[in-house]
Amino acid sequence: MTYDKLSVAAARKAESVGKKVLLQGWVRTRRDSKAGFSFIELNDGSSQGNVQVIAAKELPNYETDIKTITAGSSVAVQGLVKESPGQRQATEIEAEGIELIGTADPAAYPLQKKGHSLEFLRTLAHLRVRTNTFGAVARIRNRVSFSIHQFFQENGFFYVHTPIITASDCEGAGQMFRVSTLDPNDPPKDSEGKIDFSKDFFAKASYLTVSGQLNVETYCAGLSRVYTFGPTFRAENSNTSRHAAEFWMIEPEIAFCLLEENMEWAEKFLRRLIADVLRECAEDIEFFNKHVDTTLIETLNHVLNSPFVRLSYTEAVKILHKSGKIFDYKVDWGTDLQSEHERFLTEEHFKSPVILYDYPRTIKPFYMRVNEDAKTVRAMDVLVPKVGEIIGGSEREYHLDILEERMKEQKLETDAYRWYADLRRYGTVPHSGFGLGLERALMFITGMANIRDVLPFPRTPGNCDF
Ligand code: 4AD
Ligand code: MG
Question: What is the dihedral of CA 460, 344, 323, 303, to 10 degrees?
Fold first, then answer.
């Protein structure tokens, strides 16, 4: 007799009825009936739902093994897929053989009971993917990553691998992790007594990248449409529910593209990710809609079907002034908007995603295109309810003289950016791009409120376990 290896997701489908299958996975629960049966809920991560396995007492190892199976144990089940008489599932498995592979001592297994808090589960990052919530997050993270590549590949973008180690600070924020092989206890010193990084591995100070943008711009000026998608690192000590020290960013860069077109791409891109998840991860989304945020599906559908509000920074400041709301941080033209302001605009005032553009030049990085008013730059931030900023982007300054002026204004070492300035020296073109924080997108799509719960192994201040 041959049993075909099948995933639990496949075994749950009506079309599998009549098949002899081999299922392998982890037991969620076992209960025994008086009539001499055991019911095992089996999950292998292929879907949110389990498949029910029915084990009769006639099985040879029923007393010795099957009746000792507890939550968390791993098993292999050979059996027949049958139509289920129950309403909730299409199929069930009539077991013809069950092998208990790995036991999980119920006195010690931390997921023996259901209903642990998300905070507690963070201390179990190595086991939490076996829960409904984290299995669903993982599947949606996978789907979104896949759709990101599909979207860009279908639209003629080339995937570029930008470096993780860098000597330049893209955002000018100065909150970077240093990469060094110098002995921290006895570093070489220069004549002024400062650490001499010319003796370091790269013969200069180097860091983990905060963004792949500057590098991907070079490939844009040759391949026209490109994107990078990789890990980025920020050492800002902001212990919030929306900041991680290591997160993934998707950064498309588009040649011959102005800010308006950039906004179109950002909107189209976000919609595509949402539509794919609603279609391909329906069961997981229903789970989040039921257990995490009961307005989730409604919100996602709203975003799919209505255009994003577009508003200049100057208009936004006026609205915030007129709102009569008391914010923790006061807004004045020229100050950076805080998350409370962004959330007021998107959640309360417009109740829709909002794209803010034309920010003051003083609060945005040197590479953004300066407007004719000389006071603002062609920046854009996409804000969404509950998360706030999800995308940051801009049209890039493509005039060499203005770019150099901006570098001086922001006190950057122009030498370090010579290669970047070369793009304006040889065949410069107007171009634009943006960065989507993958985890912020996942928070929005799943309704999960903390970035620590959409990263498999979150890195945040004071936390680098697992
Ligand atoms: O707005 P940011 O800093 O933009 C850039 O890095 C540009 N170089 C992008 C570009 O134009 N190519 O970051 C982009 C996005 C933010 O909107 C946010 O979603 C996310 O990255 N992000 C973070 N996500 C998690 N933790 C953090 N500490 C984040 N910082 C930024
Ligand atoms: Mg930003």
Answer: 160
Assign domain 4-102 to a CATH class: mainly beta
φ and ψ of 196, to 5 deg: -95, 95
Q: Which two tokens stand for residue 260?
A: 């308006």
Choose the residue to mutate in 395, 440, 445 for probing ligand 1, maximizing ligand atoms within 8 Å of C-beta: 440
Q: What is the pTM for the complete model shown?
A: 0.97
List CB-based neighbours of ion ligand 2 within 5 Å: 392
Q: What is the pLDDT of residues 170-209, one digit of tens each?
A: 777 668 999 999 999 999 999 999 999 999 999 999 999 9
Could you tell me the distance, in angstroms and rounded to a whole number, from the CA of residue 365 to the centre of ligand 1?
A: 12
Give the closest ligand to the alpha carbon of residue 437: 1
Calculate mean pLDDT across residues 214-239: 95
Quick: pLDDT tens for 356-366. Answer: 999 999 999 99
Choosing among 3.30.200.20, 3.30.930.10, 3.40.50.300, 3.90.1150.10, the CATH entry for 129-158+220-453 is 3.30.930.10
Residue 200 Cα to ligand 1 midpoint, Å, equals 29
Residue tagged 């999800």 (tokens):
390
Give 205 Cα–ligand 2 centroid separation in angstroms.
25
Split at pLDDT 50, 70, 90, the class of 431 is very high
**Residue-range domain boundaries for the chain:** 4-102, 129-158+220-453
Residue nearest to atom 18 of ligand 1 (CA): 437
The residue among 91, 17, 5 whose CA lies nearest residue 52 is 91
Token pair 């000597």: residue: 167
